[in-house]
Design brief:
Blueprint lengths: L9 H8 L21 E6 L9 E7 L5 H5 L9 H18 L5 E6 L2 E4 L9 E13 L4 E11 L2 E14 L2
Antiparallel strand pairs: 1-2, 2-5, 3-7, 4-7, 5-6, 6-7
């Protein structure tokens, strides 16, 4: 297990996006505007609902965020796919945080439920990812997790069986 802290601020996340946190060729977050969180408040390899690892992050919602202007004019809503991408980003981050090597790739999701919306008057999203499986073998490095996104404490997105892999190719 690598020796990384269990919380990260925005500067740390930007270092990860540049490949400076986990090293070149390893898990990276996207750069803004696709970086879907402002801070990671907790990460583990053995915590969470299933004892297989978890990660919690926050994203500050501001009315001037890039997607509100275009989705949709006159009816601004954050695209649900961006919330899902934030969950995938965090799943891959957790694998890199464990010290596992390779670039992250989203492989799919078993189930998605969207039960609310993110409008410009919301203040903060909180992401919760709970791993159900994390495997590293000679041939496979993969995390499987369930997740949810809360907007100001209200659950608005839920996913089951997200899959993210790390590949050295």
């Amino acid at each position: 297990m690598a020796d990384y802290p269990t919380s990260f601020d925005r500067d740390d996340l930007l270092k990860c996006a540049r490949g400076e946190l986990f090293g070149p060729g390893n898990a990276q977050l996207p750069e803004p505007p696709m970086l879907m969180m402002d801070r990671i408040t907790d990460v583990s390899a053995d915590g969470g609902a299933h004892g297989k690892g978890h990660i919690i992050a926050e994203f500050d919602i501001r009315p001037d965020l890039w997607f509100f202007e275009c989705h949709f004019p006159g009816n601004p809503i954050m695209p649900g796919c961006l919330g899902l991408d934030g969950l995938w980003q965090l799943t891959g981050f957790n694998l890199g945080w464990r010290g596992w090597q390779g670039r992250g790739y989203a492989l799919g999701v078993g189930e998605v439920k969207l039960t609310g919306m993110v409008r410009p008057d919301r203040k903060m999203l909180t992401y919760h990812v709970d791993f159900t499986k994390a495997v590293q073998t000679r041939r496979l490095t993969m995390g499987v997790a369930d997740g949810r996104v809360e907007a100001d404490g209200e659950v608005i997105y839920q996913v089951k069986d997200m899959k993210v892999a790390l590949s050295e190719s």
